[in-house]
Design a protein that fits this description.
By secondary structure, the protein is an alpha+beta fold. Helices cover about 25% and strands about 30% of the residues. The protein is globular.
């Protein structure tokens, strides 16, 4: 089932998400719905806060980047209760976007290598290293479960220049090909 994606301005996007346990209700269905929602919106990652759930869960499929990095072919993963343990290397910029902030893209600087501890969909504890675009997608989605958006990582000048556009997004003044939930519209009910 395709779920509505929460737009910029919703308080859930600024909350540090909570750990979950194996008894979380219908977790496998939620994961399946998150992948379906992400694919329908042409995304490469989706975090639970983006669908209104303040829990430490995100899904990624970095396969669209396999032209740039062939090892990303079929790079599809589920991250539950993730913690980034280490970020190393010389920061590099890459143009990022976000399904919760449609039509906004900015260069974001991130370190190229990370070590992450997480549970997969089978509740197996993993500790893995990732680099390049895989690391970047994970860092972007990890930010969501930490209550951060990629716009928090750009300069104050750029953020000021985007202020009106970001406010318009939160009010629903944006056209997208996927379902969204807008915080300003929610308050009027």
């Amino acid at each position: 089932m395709k779920l509505p994606i929460v737009a910029y301005g919703d308080p859930v996007l600024k909350k540090v998400a909570l750990d979950i346990n194996q008894d979380y209700p219908d977790l496998n269905v939620l994961i399946e719905n998150m992948f379906e929602t992400m694919y329908a919106a042409s995304g490469v990652g989706l975090a639970a806060p983006q669908i209104g759930l303040p829990i430490r869960l995100f899904v990624i499929d970095a396969t669209p980047f396999d032209d740039d990095e062939p090892e990303l072919s079929n790079f599809k993963k589920v991250f539950i209760n993730a913690r980034i343990l280490e970020e190393t290397g010389e920061p590099w910029k890459f143009n990022e976007g976000c399904l919760s902030i449609p039509d906004v893209r900015e260069d974001v600087s991130r370190k190229p290598e990370i070590v992450v501890s997480y549970y997969n969909e089978n509740w197996e504890l993993k500790e893995e290293s990732f680099k390049g675009l895989a690391a970047r997608v994970i860092q972007h989605e990890y930010d969501h479960i930490e209550g951060k958006l990629f716009t928090d990582r750009i300069s104050l000048l750029r953020k000021t220049m985007l202020k009106n556009k970001l406010e318009s997004i939160s009010k629903g003044a944006v056209k997208v090909a996927y379902k969204m939930r807008f915080p300003s519209l929610k308050k009027k009910r």
